[in-house]
TrEMBL record:
The keyword Transferase applies. Signal peptide: none annotated. Keywords: Acyltransferase, Cell membrane, Membrane, Transferase, Transmembrane, Transmembrane helix. The lineage of its organism: Bacteria, Bacillati, Bacillota, Bacilli, Lactobacillales. Residues 6-332 form the Acyltransferase domain. InterPro entries: Acyl_transf_3_dom. Belongs to the acyltransferase 3 family. It is found in: Cell membrane. GO terms for cellular component: plasma membrane. It comes from Carnobacterium alterfunditum. This is Surface polysaccharide O-acyltransferase, integral membrane enzyme. The keyword Acyltransferase applies. GO terms for biological process: enterobacterial common antigen biosynthetic process.
Length: 347
């Protein structure tokens, strides 16, 4: 049996925790003045948590791009792609019904129309499924690129330019001239996440020299600090929350994400772990996808009963609320998973 990649499971659980933190914080930013200590604490937490979604894509790249691993297109589409599609249908329908009812408190022809539109668009956090499906259908082609180290590095560089540099340039224009070559076809999002896929695969399967590792760590720290500073300074300047540095397809978030991934690979991959720790970790990792899908609903329900970061200083309230949502979400998904047929299609 192939040895488990422990650091990938740790990262999957940590990334799920950080996504929950982002969605808790995003609701509460408006509760505080931008120049307040509390707002800046939220900014620090949110900036750090922005590595979460990129880590999900990078971890998928570890396993799905490995050309040495047996791969069946038919099995892949039937198991992985179909699962994402059915999960979207179920959860999008559930969120559409709950949130439409919460707003209108009735069902008529107009409300049914609103609900159907909400279902088609998907709740805000379900965008992740769209992107995963988009990349999954490309995997049979991407795996061929993964056979060549030079091609991998070339593609990462290409994706970094198209998916990170150009979109960031348009948010921070340095000139009034925008050429077709700069704008190009709107593929920046696709290439950005493909870049994360290959970055995860490359870092997991190739060894780096000490100076390269140190450079990545330094750039990662710079990415985190710049995210905090740019968000804080620009928000104060504009008098409203400025969140462009939080975007997943920005160089600063890319740098801190690959640094976090590399750090986990180097430091969180013990050869020997206790059976109890491994059992708990694998259980949490197995349900992380379901936790991601349901956690927004749990946050909404807690918000409805007044559970916000206001109950204490954000230094304490953010991690406490995040842990609470994580645990409740885990219990819900663990319960749903006891239904084999349901588990197969929505988790």
């Amino acid at each position: 049996m192939k040895e488990r990649v422990i650091y990938a499971d740790i990262l999957r659980v940590a990334a799920t925790f950080l996504v929950i933190a982002i969605h808790i914080i995003s609701r509460d930013f408006d509760l505080y003045a931008i120049d307040s200590y509390q707002w800046q604490v939220l900014n620090v937490f949110d900036s750090f948590a922005r590595m979460s979604v990129p880590l999900f894509f990078m971890m998928s790249g570890i396993f799905f791009l490995d050309p040495k691993k047996a791969f069946s297109i038919r099995k892949f589409y039937k198991k992985n792609v179909f699962r994402l599609v059915t999960a979207f249908i179920f959860w999008s329908a559930l969120y559409a019904v709950i949130f439409t009812w919460n707003e209108y408190r009735t069902f008529n022809s107009e409300v049914w129309g609103v609900m159907f539109e909400a279902f088609k668009e998907g709740h805000f956090h379900l965008w992740f499924l769209f992107r995963m499906i988009e990349i999954y259908v490309m995997i049979p082609f991407l795996r061929k690129i993964a056979e060549d180290k030079k091609m991998i590095l070339y593609l990462i560089a290409f994706c970094f330019y198209i998916g990170f540099i150009l979109p960031t340039y348009h948010e921070f224009p340095v000139s009034s001239t925008v050429t077709f070559a700069e704008r190009g076809i709107n593929l920046d999002i696709t290439f950005g996440y493909v870049g994360y896929f290959f970055a995860g695969y490359f870092l997991a399967h190739y060894d780096l020299s000490k100076w390269v590792k140190r450079a990545i760590y330094l750039l990662g720290a710079a990415g985190l600090i710049s995210t905090i500073v740019m968000t804080g300074v620009e928000s104060l300047k504009q008098g409203k929350h400025y969140d462009v540095p939080y975007e997943y397809l920005t160089p600063n978030v890319f740098l801190m994400s690959i640094a976090a991934f590399l750090l986990a690979k180097e430091k969180l991959n013990p050869k020997h772990v206790s059976a109890k720790f491994k059992r708990i970790l694998l259980d949490l990792s197995a349900y992380s996808f379901g936790i991601y899908l349901v956690h927004v609903l749990i946050i909404f329900l807690l918000w409805e009963v007044g559970a916000t970061t206001l109950f204490s200083t954000p230094i304490l309230s953010v991690p406490i609320l995040t842990l609470l949502v994580f645990c409740i979400s885990y219990i819900c998904i663990k319960g749903i998973a006891q239904l084999p047929f349901i588990k197969r299609f929505i988790l």
